[in-house]
Design the sequence.
């Protein structure tokens, strides 16, 4: 992404910083709590999502080019390794992406920003799969 001055603009800057990231995470977990398609995905999360939301907010902010607070607190993301204890197949990937798309639609007004984020998250979500189809 480039800004008007042809300087590189991060996704984090483009969407407006930490506040929109926090709204995105809240909407994401609201979708996970309410969409029938996400029921099984929600079941692998703790009942109290307070810490989970905090960590995802830090991660997404850093992933989008914002502050490195996630790594400063938790070290290298190692996302696939951190999720190996959970069964992540196509259904979980698809439910996660559905919740994220819903959250992006609700919280990020710029359609180009929504598409850029979802487009970058889709391969990451696919890479997280640790179960083969079948």
Sequence:
């Amino acid at each position: 992404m480039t800004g008007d001055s042809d300087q590189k603009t991060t996704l984090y800057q483009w969407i407006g910083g930490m506040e929109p990231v926090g709204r995105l995470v809240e909407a994401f977990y609201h979708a996970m709590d309410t969409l029938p398609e996400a029921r099984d995905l929600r079941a692998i999360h703790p009942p109290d999502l307070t810490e989970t939301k905090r960590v995802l907010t830090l991660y997404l902010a850093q992933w989008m080019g914002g502050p490195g607070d996630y790594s400063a607190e938790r070290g290298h993301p190692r996302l696939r390794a951190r999720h190996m204890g959970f069964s992540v197949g196509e259904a979980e990937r698809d439910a996660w992406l559905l919740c994220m798309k819903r959250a992006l639609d609700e919280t990020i007004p710029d359609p180009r920003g929504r598409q850029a984020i979802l487009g970058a998250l889709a391969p990451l979500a696919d890479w997280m799969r640790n179960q083969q189809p079948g």
